[in-house]
Amino acid sequence: MHLVLASNNRGKLAELQAMLAPLGVQLSAQGDLGVGEADEPFHTFVENALAKARFASAHTGLPALADDAGLCVRAFGGEPGVQTAYYATRFGYPKSDDNNVRALLEQMQDVQDRRATMVSTLVAVRSPQDPEPLIAMGRCRGEITRERRGSGGFGFDPVMYLPELGKTFAELPTEVKNAHSHRGKAVQQMIALMRAHWL
């Protein structure tokens, strides 16, 4: 099965391709198929993921998979949430994973409550008008470290610490990260949904 991934994030593409391998799914990034970014005007992960999936499917004619994910920091009332990818731009930095981590550590410098949740919402549609999208959500609770740790992963992985494992996502081997991460949990749900409804 060939799906378009409604994202141009290479880290996300590699992670999802590896995790969806049991289904024999081939994922292509929308940018590789000449599709630009969809608008994400909503305030929830599920609404934005659905909008992205429908957009990618409409522009490619393929079934689409979208992942809207983000970091929800307890002390910030759940922010940056759906604006996670653009977090650094609020503080004058260009958009990038590295700058997002830098901005977060700066903003949390004097914050004692370090609790945070990573959220991944996956939405799959067979067509732009699919009335029955498949929706899966995974959450992972942890704490924001005071400095970067580890060299693996992407996004906020170097500062997302998992107390039960005693490491950040960036310090974990890929297979361990995927077994415990928000995206890993969402993908396991999505695989079950696809097997039940699409295959």
TrEMBL record:
Q: What is the uppermost EC class here? A: hydrolase
**One Pfam family per UniProt:** Ham1p_like
Where does this protein hold Mg(2+)? D39, D68
Q: List the active-site residues.
A: D68 (proton acceptor)
Catalysis: reaction(s) = dITP + H2O = dIMP + diphosphate + H(+); XTP + H2O = XMP + diphosphate + H(+); ITP + H2O = IMP + diphosphate + H(+)
Q: Which domain of life is it from?
A: Bacteria
- What are its cofactors? Mg(2+)
Q: Which SUPFAM superfamilies match?
A: ITPase-like (SSF52972)
Provide the E.C. number(s) assigned to this enzyme: 3.6.1.66
Q: Which UniProt keywords apply?
A: Hydrolase, Magnesium, Metal-binding, Nucleotide metabolism, Nucleotide-binding
Give the cofactor note text.
Answer: Binds 1 Mg(2+) ion per subunit.
Sites binding substrate sit at S7, N8, N9, R10, G11, K12, A69, F154, G155, F156, D157, K177, H182, R183
Q: Which family does it belong to?
A: Belongs to the HAM1 NTPase family.
Q: Which PANTHER family match?
A: INOSINE TRIPHOSPHATE PYROPHOSPHATASE, INOSINE TRIPHOSPHATE PYROPHOSPHATASE/HAM1 PROTEIN
What quaternary structure, including any partners, is listed in this protein's UniProt entry? Homodimer.
Quote the function comment for this protein.
Pyrophosphatase that catalyzes the hydrolysis of nucleoside triphosphates to their monophosphate derivatives, with a high preference for the non-canonical purine nucleotides XTP (xanthosine triphosphate), dITP (deoxyinosine triphosphate) and ITP. Seems to function as a house-cleaning enzyme that removes non-canonical purine nucleotides from the nucleotide pool, thus preventing their incorporation into DNA/RNA and avoiding chromosomal lesions.
This chain's protein is named dITP/XTP pyrophosphatase
State the organism of origin: Comamonas faecalis
